[in-house]
């Protein structure tokens, strides 16, 4: 799995961090997404897919 | 007469407190771009399909400039939270809006909310203690749903929670559709403005460790911060948004889960469902209020219908959240539903800033209630639950429970 994030689109909702904290974080100074793991381990795939599906800004790409 | 041949009154009247109006399904299937008449008498265009609502909310051509001279007025009394004089002080879009959003958004990250969780749980526990002490039946909204988010947002902003009855009334007037007259609204907004001005002046003299003090500490626009007026309106906006919506949602969520008590029992048996149950309650909330209005500055097409420049569009997220094309068994409450890309918090660059806060509060309330009051049940038949009327936010007037 290959994960991408679009910092420009990100609205800081934090859903991805709540769902997959091993893969996503937010910057402390503005809440914008930080991608911790562009190729996450298989155990996180379901959570990453859910995060991408529910991201209100559609800022997460999964291939 | 079908919904296609008439101009519907909006919000669509509905007596059932927890069920959607019958018109939603018909609108989605036969008239996804509908003509409606707002409480002001002005006409607007109502969208009810998921794909349309999601696309419009994320499309910068659909602006929040409800102050435009040809925009539809929501309320006959003017001055609503969407179109009042305060509504345009926070930048509407583009880089300026993003700058504002990121300055404030740092306070609402998932990590910050996780750090607040023990404090929220403590407040919820104390409120439940008070409910138990006073004995059943009780109004869950007055005893828990309203005070919890108020205490939390007051601590975040550095606003005295003892003043909650006052700013709750000011909030209601800002969210007016039909309840208040123009004089009442203007007086209340003036008082709210003066209250927040005094509070900010006090914070300038003696800063605390709260959001508003730190927004002041960043400096003015020349230092990358906000103007004094923007800080003031941000404070008012966060105070209104931080309690009204969640206070109502706590009551509606608990009512939905108790309306069919097998739902409550599923959660008692498996509290790991709390997260998805909260999302499903947000999705199925048929009483979420007005929806989100947008003003169109250029001609645009939605679902094959051309909308002329100057159109005011109303996005019904609640109707969109029941779209069968997107959600399997959309009318059913499925506590395990996942993923659940509902639009209760909007979508795109303006999607709710406080959604992590709201989610955390809803989850904490449910955890504490399931643990402390497992025998909780509605103290009245579902048919007797009454809606809040006349405001842009939807809710239940009271949520009578016993245990």
Note the topology:
The complex is a heterodimer of chains A (63) and B (403).
Chain A lengths: L2 E3 L9 H5 L4 E3 L6 E3 L9 H10 L5 E3 L1
Antiparallel strand pairs in A: 1-4, 2-3
Chain B lengths: L7 E2 L13 H8 L2 E5 L5 E5 L2 H8 L4 E2 L30 H12 L4 H25 L3 E2 H6 L1 H11 L6 H11 L7 H24 L5 H8 L9 H32 L1 H9 L4 H11 L7 E5 L3 E3 L2 E3 L4 E4 L1 H4 L34 H18 L4 E2 L21 E3 L1
Parallel strand pairs in B: 1-2, 3-9
Antiparallel strand pairs in B: 2-3, 4-6, 5-11, 6-9, 7-8, 10-11
Helix pairs in contact in B: 4-6, 4-14, 6-10, 7-8, 7-10, 8-10, 10-14, 12-14
CATH topology of chain B: Cytochrome p450
Number of domains of chain A: 1
CATH superfamily of chain B: Cytochrome P450
* Tally of individual helices of chain A: 2
Query: How many H/I helical runs of chain B?
Result: 14
Largest sheet, strands/sense/barrel of chain A:
2 strands, antiparallel
DSSP summary, beta strand count of chain A: 4
Classify the secondary structure makeup of chain A into a structural class: alpha+beta
Poorly predicted regions of chain A: none
Counted up, domains of chain B total: 1
Helix and strand content put the structural class of chain B at alpha+beta
Say how many strands of chain B there are.
11
Q: In this structure, how is the largest beta sheet of chain B organized?
A: 6 strands, mixed
Strand order of the largest sheet of chain A: 1-4
Could you tell me the CATH topology label of chain A: Alpha-Beta Plaits
Taken as a percent bin, the fraction of beta residues of chain B is: 5-15%
Tell me the span between the first and last alpha carbons of chain B.
46 Å
How much helix, percentage-wise, in residues of chain A?
10-25%
- Termini separation of chain A: 6 Å
Organism (chain A): Nonomuraea indica
Function (chain A): Ferredoxins are iron-sulfur proteins that transfer electrons in a wide variety of metabolic reactions.
Keywords (chain A): 3Fe-4S, Electron transport, Iron, Iron-sulfur, Metal-binding, Transport
Protein name (chain A): Ferredoxin
